[in-house]
Amino acid sequence: MSSDSSHRVLALAGVFQAARLVQQLAREGHGDSAAYRASIDSILVLDPKEPIDVYGDVAGLALGLEILRDKLDGRHNGPLELELARYVIGIIHLQGRLRRHPSMLDALRRGIEAAQAQRSFFTQDDDGEGVHPSLVARLAEVYAQTLSTLTPRIMVNGEPSFLATPAIAERIRAALLAGVRAAVLWRQLGGSRWQLVFGRRKLTRQAAALRETILPRCQV
C-alpha cells in the first residue's frame, strides 16, 4: 500500500473518529451513525489495495478529520478533550502491544473473517448507529477475547446506565476494535507517535484540506 502522508492522515483520522465514537456512546448512549458505520465497516476490510479502500471514501472519515483539524493544535484542552486524547493514546498503545503478540493477530484475523462470512445474514435491521446488532456483537466478542486481555486495558468513562447496557457496551468494544484497526493501518503507512508530538501543525493542515474535499465551500 502507498505510504503517502495524506493516507497516514486518513488512518489517524480513523483512530480519532473511533475514540470520539467511544466517548459519544459512553456519555450519550449513541454515536454519529455515518461515522460509526464507516468505522465498523473498516474492520472487515483486511486486504485493501489502497488505504482509502478501508473506509470506502474520504467522506466516511468526516468526523475524524474534523477532530484532527480542530483539536490537534492543543488549544482545546477541556476535560472531554483530555479524555478523548487518553482514548487515542490508549488505542495507539494497544496497537503497539498487539504487534508483540503474533498469535493474537492471527486470532483477530480469524474472528474478523468469521464476521465477514456472516455479514450477508446481517442485512436487515440495525442498531442505533446503522449497523446490525449481531455484527456489532460478533466484533465486540472478538475484541473481548483478544485485545481486551492485554494490559493495561482501556478504561472508558461515561454514564453508568449506558455503560451497564449490554448493547451499548458492545458498540463501544466494536468501536475500540475499529480504532485499533485504524492504528494498525496508520503504523503500516509509516505513522509514529513522534509525528503526533512534532508534526501537529502539518497534520492539522492536511486534515483541514482533506475535510474541505468532503464539504467544499459554496461557489457564489
Features of this protein?
0% strand; YcfC-like; 10 helices; globular; 220 residues
Structure description:
The chain is an all-alpha fold and 220 residues long. The protein has a single domain, classed as HflD-like (YcfC-like). The protein has helices at 5-28, 33-43, 62-71, 79-99, 102-118, 133-145, 160-163, 166-188, 193-198, 200-214. α2 (33-43) packs across α8 (166-188), α4 (79-99) packs across α8 (166-188) and α5 runs antiparallel to α6 (133-145).
Tally of separate helices: 10
Order of helices and strands: HHHHHHHHHH
Number of strands: 0
CATH architecture title: Orthogonal Bundle
Classify the beta-strand content into a percent band: under 5%
Under CATH, the homologous superfamily reads HflD-like
**CATH topology (fold) name:** YcfC-like
Q: Tell me the radius of gyration.
A: 16 Å
The main pleated sheet reads as: none
Shape: globular
Low-pLDDT ranges: none
The share of residues in helices is 55-70%
